[in-house]
């Protein structure tokens, strides 16, 4: 979601109107939404796959067979 969309949907509304106290449970509506979306993400994707993807990105070199990226892009 875009920044504007998140602001319109959630703003700074407190999930428990009138109750202000410091704790680590979801206090704002956006926290509940993000926790829900995060749990969906974790259920669908394996975190270990991201380790392999980022390692592949680290070692990928587009210009490895040429002297420059410009020479590589002309092929």
Could you list some keywords that capture this structure?
single chain, 75 residues, mainly alpha, 56% helix
Question: Secondary-structure map with pairings?
Answer:
Elements: H1 3-10, H2 29-44, H3 47-59, H4 69-73
Q: Indicate the structural class.
A: mainly alpha
Form type: elongated
Tell me, rounded to a whole number, the average pLDDT.
Answer: 77
Biggest β-sheet, characterized? Answer: none
Strands, total number: 0
The helix fraction, in percent, is 55-70%
The share of residues in extended strands comes to: under 5%
Number of helices: 4
First-to-last CA distance = 38 Å
The run of helices and strands is HHHH
**Uncertain regions spanning at least 5 consecutive residues:** none
Q: What's the gyration radius in Å?
A: 22 Å
Explain this structure to me?
With 75 residues, the protein is an all-alpha fold. It is built from 4 helices and no strands. It has helices at 3-10, 29-44, 47-59, 69-73. The two termini are 38 Å apart.
